[in-house]
Amino acid sequence: MPFYHAVSDNVPFHLKHLYQPRSSQLFKADLAYFLKYFEPIELKELIRLVKEDKPLKKNYFHLTFDDGLRDFYDVAAPILKEQGIPATIFLNSDFIDNKAIFYRFKASILAEKLVAKGLLDISYSEKEILDELAKENNIDFEEYLKNEKPYLTSPQIEQLIQQGFTVGAHSKNHPLYNQIKLEEQITQTKESIKAVITPYNLEYNVFSFPFTDFGVSHQFFAAIKNEVDLTFGCAGLKDDTIKNHLQRIPMELQQGGKEIIKTEYFYYLLKKIVGKNKIIRP
Ligand SMILES: [Zn+2]
Q1: Which of 19, 89, 143, 239 has a C-alpha 20 to 30 A away from that of 54?
Q2: Do the Cβ atoms of 30 and 251 come closer than 8 Å?
């Protein structure tokens, strides 16, 4: 389960100070590597395999992209379509159609314009500071949204679904779950799932955690059990105590795809020996 946010040859300000997206060339090299050793499967097949819970006959992969970025439509989707590789895009329901922008993207824009990297440490609960700073420095996020259009629009999402891509929810506005209360975690999850499945009449429900699922309790998973087919984390190649919760491998690192996947397998197998390859939850 490799996971990406963006594939970009011209990294925009809102991503520039957060992570290094794959270039289209590097992304194609990742795909060539995956195809050599693994078979691509659709989300519905993945859901079926997890529900079935039998040993797999083949090695499979399913690609996922978090944050619902327009760049998926522009860059990644044409490459994937050409190669016949399915993928799932996880959307923040508050940001679809460029209605609002993730506070970390604000921090990255400000870090670029004000040359102040310290802004990247601002947390979800302090996010209003970013708006104040922007105002003081005449930086207009509304204008940025209008000009740059970082997010997918509803018609683009519709088109992607028609092309065979699948979509899921990624919370409403991307909080760090272990910093918000259980009720807020549940609301963010249920409402974002509803906002994603209703307009597109989806017959499957999937959710990927914003940032990380680290510290998210059994109680939370029990509360959303009937709302989702699968949920996704990004702790790398690991097993999880929650059966329908799959961990994914972050691909936005300096190394090539082959190196990333090999390293993940190495640590997975090493940790397996000492019984530490499974995530234990509070
Ligand atoms: Zn995200």
Answers
A1: 89
A2: yes
Q: What is the pLDDT of residue 63?
A: 98
Which two structure tokens, joined as six digits, stand for 14? 């809102």
Domains of the chain and any CATH numbers: 2-279 (3.20.20.370)
Residue with tokens 């992969």: 61
CA gap 59, 31 in Å, rounded: 15
Q: Comparing C-alpha atoms, which of 79, 81, 88, 86 is closest to residue 26? A: 79
CB 208 within 8 A of CB 90: yes
pTM above 0.90, yes or no: yes
Per-residue pLDDT tens digits for 199-227: 999 999 999 999 999 999 999 999 999 99
Closest by Cα among 16, 1, 13, 21 to 253: 21
CA of 66 to the centre of ligand 1 (A): 5
Would you say how long the chain is, in residues? 282
Determine the distance separating the centroid of ligand 1 and the alpha carbon of 216, expressed in angstroms. Answer: 16
Written as one letter, the residue type at 87 is A
Q: CB of 43 within 8 A of CB of 206?
A: yes
User: In whole angstroms, how far apart are CA 238 and each of 5, 40, 210?
Assistant: 20, 20, 18
Q: Tell me, in angstroms, the distance from the centre of ligand 1 to residue 212's CA.
A: 9
pLDDT digits (tens, 9 = 90+) for 81-100: 999 999 999 999 999 999 99
Q: Considering only CA atoms, which of 174, 161, 282, 169 is closest in space to residue 221?
A: 282
State whether residue 247 is helix, strand or coil. strand
